[in-house]
Each structure stands twice: as structure tokens, then as C-alpha cells.
Amino acid sequence: MAVTDPDVSPYHGMSMFLVPTDTPGVNIERNIGLSGDPLGGGHHALIHYEDVRVPADALLGGEGQAFAIAQTRLGGGRIHHAMRTIGQARKALDMMCERALSRTTKGSLLADKQFVQGYIADSYAQLTQFRLLVLYTAWSIDKHNDYRKVRKDIATVKVVMPGVLHDIALRALQVHGALGASNEMPFHQMIMGASVLGIADGPTEVHKVTVARQVLRDYSASDDLWPSQHIPRRLAAARAKYAEYLEHEVGNQ
Description:
Layout: E1 2-3, H1 10-13, E2 14-17, E3 26-32, E4 44-49, E5 59-60, H2 66-102, E6 104-105, E7 108-109, H3 114-144, H4 151-181, H5 187-197, H6 204-216, H7 231-241, H8 243-252
Antiparallel strand pairs: 1-2, 2-5, 3-4, 6-7
């Protein structure tokens, strides 16, 4: 993505190009991995573009459409991330439950310990709520066929997603004890994956701002000194509205 029209907003002034890696000036400095990977390894390249020139037919889509193209891909991509997250979180929950039913300490199964029962209940509740949110959002995408109309829910899925996987994987690790913290179990990779989900396709903080702004569009400010749901104000309005009936009731007494 590059600015092709600096006189308008970045949203309308950036364009997307397909740049072959053998183009002069495309310098792949090194590969970068995730935490725990050896230096020099990994699958993410640090690329430096130095005076790179590409022909006009390298333009992807139309000029100024970079953000529109990116959002079209990212809208569905975020839901795909969420679907995979559901699978990972379910796997962690399954392993936690198996471990709880398999190990005994202080004369009873881990499954009989209230702390472990709390881990299982909280994990099931988180996963079920998240799964239904993702299902509803996917249904909304199919219904509207317009990612802009589902932007709020897609952003909400993105906000919730890292926490769900992190929390369930961390509880599962804890129930497995020392084995859970070892490299013979997948929990550290899951937790690292949750951290990546909070950054990839836009950081969590940006999506929270998007959600808040979208939600606030459905509300308006109170033009009074008091909030619209202020109880004394509502009581006064109710008495004024039903004054005739209240007078009859008092008169009948």
C-alpha cells in the first residue's frame, strides 16, 4: 500500500500494488519469528522498499481503493480467525476436562475440586458466548452481503477473541500442572497465538474504538440537566401523564 494522492485523506488516497520480490529495490532484510523461535528463523519477513518502481498494471483494483480492498479481505478474514479460535479454545477445554477426570490429588479427582470446577464452568461459558457471537456475525454477513453493515459486530468479535483463547488455554495449562508448562503440551503456543490475535488484522484497542463509535451512533445526548432515566424526573412525568386517573383514585377513596 502506498500514498498515491497526498491531497485527500489516507482512506481515499492510498492504492495497493502487487510487487514481485525480484523487483529492484525490494530488499528482504531478514526473517522474523514469534517469541520462542530462534533468531533468524520464522515466516515473517522484514522488507525494505528502496526507490521501488512498478508499472501501472501492478495496481490492484482502482487508484485510491487500497483500504476498500483491504477491508473486504479483512472482514471475512477476522471471522475465519474467530472460527479457528473456537476450535483451539474447544481443544483446550477438552484437554482440561480430560485431565480433571484423570488426575487425583489429596484423595480426590481434580474434577472434584471447586477451583477446577470453576475453571471448567468459566471456560464453557466464555466459549459458548463467543461461539454464538461468531455465528450471529457470520449470519449477518450472509444476510447483508456488505461488511460495512456488520462492521460493529466484526470488530466486537475481534476484541473478544484473544481473551477467550488466552483465558481457556491458561486455565487448561494450570490444570495440567508442570506438564502443561512444558513444550510437550500445546498451551504456550495457544497463549502466544492469542497474543498474536490481539495484534493481527488491527490491534484490539483500535477495534474497541470502532465498536464504541458504532454503538454511540444509535444514541443521542440528553438536552436536559438530568439524564432521561432520572427516577424523580420519570415519576413526575408519569404523574403528569396519568394525573386524571390519579385524581379519580384519590376521589374514590
